[in-house]
# Entry
Amino acid sequence: MMLKANDPALLTWVNVPAGSDFPIQNLPFGVFRRGDAAPGLCSAIGNYVIDLAALASHGFFDDLQFDRQVFSQPSLNDFIALGKDKTRAVRQRLSEILDDDRESWDAKELAEYFLIPMAEVQLLLPVHIGDYTDFYSSLEHATNVGIMFRGPDNALMPNWRHLPVGYHGRASSIVVSGTPVRRPKGQMLPPGAEQPVFGPSKRLDFELEMGFIVGKNTSLGHSVSAAQAEDYIFGLVLFNDWSARDIQQWEYVPLGPFLGKNFASTMSPWVVTLDALEPFRVAGPVQTPEVLPYLHAGGDRNFDIQLEVAIKLEDGRETTVSRSNFKYMYWNMCQQLAHHTVNGCNIRVGDLMASGTISGPSSDSYGSMLELAWRGERPLPMPDGSTRAFIEDGDEVILRGWAEKDGVRVGFGEAAGRVVAEW
Ligand code: MN
# Structure
């Protein structure tokens, strides 16, 4: 069944430039601040943010019966916690307000009160993230890394096709797009050396990922089934899991990622609802061997979302270094959530679950420099004549993502961060 807010025939009275990530069919949610004013919740259309508290103060949501204070908070958490019935009704109401054919609303005359040029506001981290988990769910990525570190004969560990491998990450260092990323320092073992050294990472990398925001609490001891998991997913973001490969490689045995990962992760400011992505649902890869029953989700659980990574040099020139797609994920979000909670681990509204690096089948679709430049053996050419095996100081890494079908493009904006040597 098609949600009314997703109708590709919907047109809006707001001027939306061609190719915009934010047509009337998207209506993502975020948090903004204008000047010194207190932060508040917003949506997006074209080049405007939609001030939700301003709309609420004019009575546009009065009949939906929730406390409109949720729109005057510094995060989406209280809004998300209203539940999908309410948040879905708000998105539907926004599509009615912005609809070119609207009959019952006087929104157009009030536009100056609730539409603010995006360039005039600061977009903030949209969610207070209590806990962050990172998975490792791309078969191509796991295979590439396995070949590099263990050789082609046992690239995948024996557990990989049986469960969505993951680890608990660090929420405190997740930053919104546009925040500079300081090159981490740490301990590493240089190639051929017998003793570790301390210094700035020489192998700073990005990881092209998407993440989903948990939309519903569970209580300790309870599990979410794979079939019901989408009820617990509010929406998706772009996510760059910055990784210092030299620090990571020296520290990760036997307990896994630590200081090579937790210095920063960059998230997009817009949370695109699972509802808005409904038209882009596709089947995932065939899973062999068959997974255990608790990991059976049934139906099409992947989403056709095109992904790109660009490196922007200090001189302003930008090169796209990867073109991938979220549909390549071997393990889907429902399986990740079912696995995460199968032991009774509770989840909370605002938790972030990231996909793991999303690599595609071809060498220009890999989701990290480690793979794109194959451990430094095939450096990528840059427009200024230099090459990149890893990310240099001054480079800005920009993730972009969008789904497109029937002339409608539902996009995520950007997750961008520039690497600096020092603050
Ligand atoms: Mn990762």
User: Anything to note?
Assistant: The radius of gyration is 22 Å.
